[in-house]
Amino acid sequence: MNHRLLCSGLSLLIFTALAAVPVAQAAEPRAGEVDPRIGTGGDGHLFPGATVPFGMIQLSPDTAMPDFKHAYKWAAGYQYNDPTIMGFSHTHFSGSGHSDLGDVLVMPIVGDVKLDPGDEKVPGSGYRSRFDHATEVEQPGYYAVTLADYGVRAELTATRRVGWHRYTFPAGKPAHLLLDLRPSIYDYPGKVLWSNLQVRADGTITGCRTTRGWAPGRELCFAMRFNQPMASHELYNRETDLVYKGFKGPGYQPQDQNAQNGRALEGVFDFGELKQPLQVKVAVSSVSEANAIANLDQDGKGWDFDAHRHDASEAWNKALAPIDVDGSKTLRTQFYTALYHALIAPNLAMDVNGEYRGPDYQVHHADGFDFYSSWSMWDVYRAQQPLLILLHPDRTVDFVRSLLVAQQASPFHMLPVWAYQGLETWCMTGYHAVAIIADAYIKGIRGYDADKAMKAMVSTATYGDYGDLADYMKLGYVPIDKEVEGGSKTQEYAYDDWAIAQMAKAMGKHDIYDSFEKRATNWRNVWDPKTGFMRARLTNGKFREPFDPTSAGYGDDYTEANAWQYSWYVPQDVAGLITAMGGDQAFTHKLDELFDAKVDPSIFKNVEDITGLIGWYAHGNEPSHHIAYLYDYAGEPWKTQQRLKQIMDNEYGPGPAGLIGNDDLGQMSAWYIFTALGFYPVTPASDEYAIGRPFVPRAAIHLSNGRTFTISAAPFDDAHPYVGQITLNGKPLDRVYLKHADILAGGELHFTMQAQPNKDWGKAMSARPASMSPYH
Q1: Which of helix, strand or coil describes residue 17?
Q2: Residue 548 is part of which domain span?
Q3: What's the whole-model pTM score?
Q4: Same domain for 330 and 314
Q5: How would you classify the pairing of strands 60-62 and 87-89?
Q6: CATH code where residue 201 lies
Q7: pLDDT band at 624 (very low <50, low <70, confident <90, very high)
Q8: pLDDT higher for 246 or 722?
Q9: Residue 252 — pLDDT band, cuts 50, 70, 90?
Q10: CB of 88 within 8 A of CB of 105?
Q11: Quick one: 314 and 391 in the same domain?
Q12: pLDDT, tens digit, for every residue of 527-545?
């Protein structure tokens, strides 16, 4: 999603006011089947650089850091079609629709040093360099490229808290490393509020910078060391030219050689003519320089770059090992790359001493668990987090504990909404952290205080100042004359309320269950039977006029969608929605209208995230992600199978443009993984998965309990796109859903595929997935 307009204002106001588990069975190495280039072009917003699963470091090339008005396509700092690299920075989001980060940018340079990036269209105008994709190597945990203008071979790898660089310079030429603390992804003049830079007596470079970006007042510190002594160094304060892009002057004379403070700092470190590669290691901390040094001391020992590259690859092999997939090389690359992208975030946001920065901007200490941040809740609650519950349940324990301590530190007593490096941005809508926690609890994940979790969920859902929850609790809907996007917010709140109710019921907290189960029916208050769409109401109870179901944009009734897309968002009560729409036939007819409509994509030119259109269905944005599975709930699962094939054929592919929309911290990729396996969590916080059809001939999920759940399909080809019969452990499965317990028990789910649809299978109401309301 694109958070830029939605999220900036509230977070700035708030800042001003505040002034992993071994798998049961070893698998073949999978890292070699991943192609990190997928999604680095177009609108995928993915980076090709080095990271480890859920690591603090994302060390990657930046081809551009445009100003905030033009930054959308560079949310990860890299666009495949760009001709130059301006440097390598240590922090990046994976597939976000908004961005920040790009911290601690370095660039190896040969010969004369220019202090500004320069113009990519004018070679030699700055420190950026041209490059050729033929020289790039992208692997999980490793990235390499040759910087053509300098003849430098750059190699990158990562450990959990340290980025490792190895630069091979051409012989006979002086080598330099530039450090620029000014650039930032989603950049604008004055973004850096303050920074400091120091060369310590032992040669360690340290510094911090504070920015007023997406999370205002974010501070990030670093510590950097080299494997060879510096011949000299210069530190610069460029405050007299804060708008540095396009700078044409001769440069600035260096100032204090060992320490600088200001808003526009750079350092140049000179090494003379090198006879061996220069290695650089960098650790970061959101707490302090001292903690960055401690991270470097503990996680950055020695200088064996190849050993760390090997360890990063092994970390990815272990993380990817829970699923074995058969199929063609192209299919396996697509599958394991999607799984790789689903395992990048949330990110570790805690130092080796257990300290981390909380949403109150204070330093806290994690006792007995790792603290994670980078939470794109509006996206990842749908499929990415359910996937991790299935594949890495022990990691989920730390995720839940991270959410709970963040709520305890929140000045507003709320669970994270869109947080990174411990700080809150208030981006997007809903309070979907409650769905992540409830989903974990319903599926048997323990290891945290469930009573405290319930208190945190209720506190979040009753904080009246958030998204006009006060009126929602009073009126049963969010009035559009009080709060933008009131229609979709009402729907999202109602689903989150249902999630709270499910966990409360499982815990025996009947008063909480009764209250939130009632709130979960509030979606009905924005349903307009006259038009057949969800619509926002005014405070006086009337629907807002005029009404156009095709309209989408900030301030409209819906979040990044129109009425055609959001009117299907009642995952907790699909049976109730079917009844409201007039029954099974009317429901599936309208679904057909959605997919078969002739739509001019230019209608969404002002909503960048509405991409991947099939009719009105927009796979490039999350509100559409469950819709193809809704035929299951109306007795026509064969149409779910049909629509899923359309989506898989059109929305995913090999190469840099292989994602039709932002990956959104793994959600787009997790959708692919579940759908390829043959089922999908339409309603997180239930224990059910709606069945589609598999897009791999065979897959084996190696569960943490020591069992294996196998999915197989035959015949597996384009001539047999429909499900004829399903068996679970050899017995016919007449229902169109799987229970979580079915998977955990191990066994085999076999799909017999056929050329024509089986219109009888799954038709009975008793075969359909669960819903709040009864089927009629």
Answers
A1: helix
A2: 322-691
A3: 0.95
A4: no
A5: antiparallel
A6: 2.70.98.10
A7: very high
A8: 722
A9: low
A10: yes
A11: no
A12: 999 999 999 999 999 999 9
